[in-house]
Structures are given as C-alpha cells and as structure tokens.
Queue: 2 jobs
Job 1
Amino acid sequence: MDRQRYYVSVQAKTITNHQGDAAYEFAIDALPEDIDKLQELFAAMEEFDEMSFIRNPLPGIPYHHDSENDGYDYYLKESYKLIGQLSDEKTRSFIASMPLNAET
C-alpha cells in the first residue's frame, strides 16, 4: 500500500488528508496504520488532559509530581517521535532540535 500525504496539528490533535481543511503544523507521508497509531496517541493525550482538569485548580501539587501531566507529556513526546519518523528531513531535523528528552 502506498503512503498518502496527511496534514497534522498536534495542538488541535487533528489529522486530515486535505491541506486546506484545517490549520496544521506538520505534513507527513503515512500508511493507514500509521494514522491509526497517531490517532491513538492523540486520544491518550486527550484522556490525560481531561484527567488533569480535576487536579489543576488544586494548589501545592508541583508539575513534576503529577501523574496526569506525566502521562500527557509521554504521549506528546511519542506523537512527535512518530511524526518525525513519517516526515521529510527538514521536519525530522526540526523535531530532533526540540527538547523532547529534557526533564520537566
């Protein structure tokens, strides 16, 4: 099966195959199973984002001791890694320059 061009917004957690449908940050060339995996990562990010909503108003819990934020960060990093694997060299270089392995 041939790879198809998709346009991805990590911020909005959207994937479209028509460039003008929505704003996007990255263009990738992916197989349907790659898109399924990216959608799973975005769904996991959304779950952790919703779980953190309950905790966010509570003062005194540092970000680095918050399992909901840890989960969100993990899936965010995994999303960027997958996008990097499916992108052109310029995008791979950009993602490689991001501090994805920095401690929070």
Job 2
Amino acid sequence: MVKSITATICKNTLPPRYYSAIPGKDFNEDYYKHFYSQLNYNQMLYRIVLQRSTQKVLRWAQWSRVDLCLVNEMGLPSCQNISANIQVQLSCKLLTRRNDSFVEDARYQVDTQPLQDDEWGYDGQRLANTIGFDQSNRGGLQFRIRPSANDKLDPRSHNVYLYIFQSHAERDSLTASKVLPLVIGPLVINDHKDHSGFDPFSVPSMWSDVVSKNLAAQPAAAITSVNEGFWDQKQETNRSYRAYPFRCGQDERYILLEENWRSGMPGKIWDGALVITDIFAKRLAKDPSFLDNVHIMDLSAGLGCFGVAISFIYQILRRHNSVSRHGTPPSVTLTDLQEALPLIRRNYQLNMPPAKTLDQNNQQQQSLQAVSHPFVSITPLRWGMQCDSQKVTAWKPIDYIIASDVLYDPSKTSALLQTLIHLSSPGVTTVYLVYKKRALKREEEEAFFMGCRQYFDLSVMPEYPNETGLCRDESSVDGSTWLGCDIENTSTPHSIQATQFGVVVYLMKRR
C-alpha cells in the first residue's frame, strides 16, 4: 500500500539534490541536529543515487561523467561526522538484455577514472583520487567504453546499462560501508563514424588535448569547452535501477528494478524488501519446487521488488532444472494503491516480457514456457477495505503474505491489521511481517502486536531452517546478494561478525 509519507522532491526533470551536511540554522541548532540524527537512526545501508542527469548517448573511448550521492533509504546523507570517514571505491561494468534476462556484456570493457574538475561541477564538489566517494557523500566517476581485446567495434546502435558497484576488495572488508549498487540506463552506444583503422586506445579529437592514449596515464586536465550539441538535454537520462544478481548454472543474470524517488514512498526499495527478497531467493536456489502450487502475495508491493524478483527466479530455475518441472507454478499477487501500479507493471514487463509467438517447430519450447511461468496478478488493494481483499482471495486462499515495510504509521495500524485478517485463512496463511523501527513508539508497536496475537501465532524467523526451509542467516550480511555477493554463498564464515540493518522478520501464522 502506498505509504502516506512522501519525499521532498524537485519538480523539474532532475533527481533530487541531496546535501552532505545538516542544514545550518542560526537558532536552536542542537534541535535540528537531534532531529536529523533521529532520521538517520538504524540506517546502516547506503544507496548510490544519481546527483544529476547523465549523458545518455555514448561514443567509443569518449569519457562520460556520472555525479553520484550516497544516501540512506530515507534519501538522506549520513551525519556529518560519519561523512568525514566515508571512502567508497567504485567499479563499473555493462549489462545488456540477452534472450530472457539481463547479463554482463563481455564485448566491452569499461575504463574508469576519478571525477575531473570541469565547468559543470557543483560549487564545493570535492575532487580526489578516489573513483567514487572520498570523505564526502558526494562523489562520482568518469567512464569510457571500448571493445574487449578480441572483439571488433559494432557500428550499430544498441542499448546497454551501466552497473556501478562497490569494488569487491572493499565490499568484503568488515570496516567498509555497505553500499547498494546503482544501474543507469538504457544508454545508447551510437557512433556512425568510419572506424577503419580505429585504435580502441585512442580518444576522439575533442578530448585529445586532455586525455593520454596510454590507459595508465594520469587523470585528464580540466575540461573548459566542448563541441556544440555535445551535452544536449535530450540526450540526458536520470532513469536508475537496482540490480539483483542471480546465478543459474554458469550464467550470472540480473533482475533490474526501476526506482522513481520522485513518486515518494512506493518509488524506492526499502531495507525490509531487500532482506526478505534475499531470504526467499536463496531458498528457491536450493529447491525451486518450494513454491509449487503456492499462492503468494506481495502486500503493498511498492515498485514490485519481492514479487517481480521471485517470479523471475522461479521461472529461470524451472526452465533450467528438469527435476523441478512437475509441480504447478505459483500464483503471485502484487498489490498496492492504484497510482503505484504503473511502476510495478513496468518492472514486471522489464524482466518478464510476454512470450514470443512460436511456430510449430518450437512447440517444446512453448510448452516449457507454459509450465515454468508463474501466474502473476497486479491489482489495487486499499487497507481496511474488505471488498478489495475478497477479490484477491476469491479464487484461491493465500499461503504466504509478504508484508514488508508496512508498519510505520500509527494512524494506519488498525487498517493494516484488518487487511491481514481479511486476506488470511485460518490454518493456511502465514504472514511474513518485515519490520524495521522507524517512527513508531514502543507503546504503538506493542498495541499493534497485541492485536495481532488475537488472530495469529507470532514468532521471529529462526536462524536455522524450519519446516519451510526459510531462515534468517545471522552469519551473513543482510541482503548480501544485493551488494554483489554470490547468491549460492548463503553464509559467510562464522568468524565474521554479522552486519544487520535493523530489520526483523516476524512469522504470523493464522489461527
């Protein structure tokens, strides 16, 4: 359900601009610092977001600039004393759509360098030798694309996505900040020039005076002029996504989920959704039949993170695992308010496009698609409205309800509880209530859970597998796969202290 709190946003086409320090006030400054620190409470995972639009059309060996910011799920930078210690090294690679999923595009290499001073930079932008963030919430990088050693240039225009992530060595460090990667795109590689005799280590003439042909050269000098039309606003983009890497056999695939922070609460992925999606995905990786013939519901789905990701993973695993093709695919229902549904549908279509029309020679493939594709429904649902709930449960009882990041507003807890009661069936339904303390007082939390105990048996998700095989792995980082870790590595060595994001998963079994 769309949450009532909305983010403060810019009304123009650019993403919101974030500030690296607490807004200064001449009076009662301590109050503002206390208020700001309260908003940062329990915020341990930071997201890379675009600080401003970036160039959409790319050309070979041409440096492009990406200005970035580090914020938490609230859209706020870290406190000033924490910002001074931030150092995040970033890497990049390209993703492209191939067949039924997004994969790394091995035809190209991405070179990166630290941001260079230019006339487009914000006043006070701190420049450093770090490709990423150095003692500031604001940073970025410059990148250029060139073909891999064994590949020739493709003169045709085609779309790619730039995947920006924390470098592996730094990400695996216990002391490093945990940073959620960012995907930008689609970007268009478009260069219709004559490439005969092209040297992939050279650069366009426009940059010849500032960039060395040697890749090991020092960063380029300041850029004071560009060719006319180079930075045309029509060639900019601020479309951004989160990527969930998923390994199937030898292939690593990516689920892309578009965010739209300007739409407020439902336009972003919250910490709880990251955690519960990772838990179910790791369970599916072990046994795809886990969700056979199950009706699972993503309540207040936001941008569709859980429902879209689980549907995609189930489909891919079923298609590549002959042992698990005998069961009936699950039914997945995603609900939210009417105004939030377009973004859910876009993310579903982005990752699970309609099956192509197949001729008689492809009947076997068509049959395989039919038995592996979950039945997905995207429908509006208002909390407290029993008529909406009855439409969802009319054709089949719900086995699992995923209620992630829904407990936040004391004025809506009664309607939320009513909705959970309306949707659940005694002895059948289990609710996975994913909760992170944000705004509720302790007495408000206790009042909600006291009401739940009248209808549900409550427990906390165990550290070890229960009868469903689902568990909260306390030895690993919350949502580790989102950070770029291998989904098959379900835990880290016990010597590594767990890093948690303040998310608790409650199991509520309907009596």
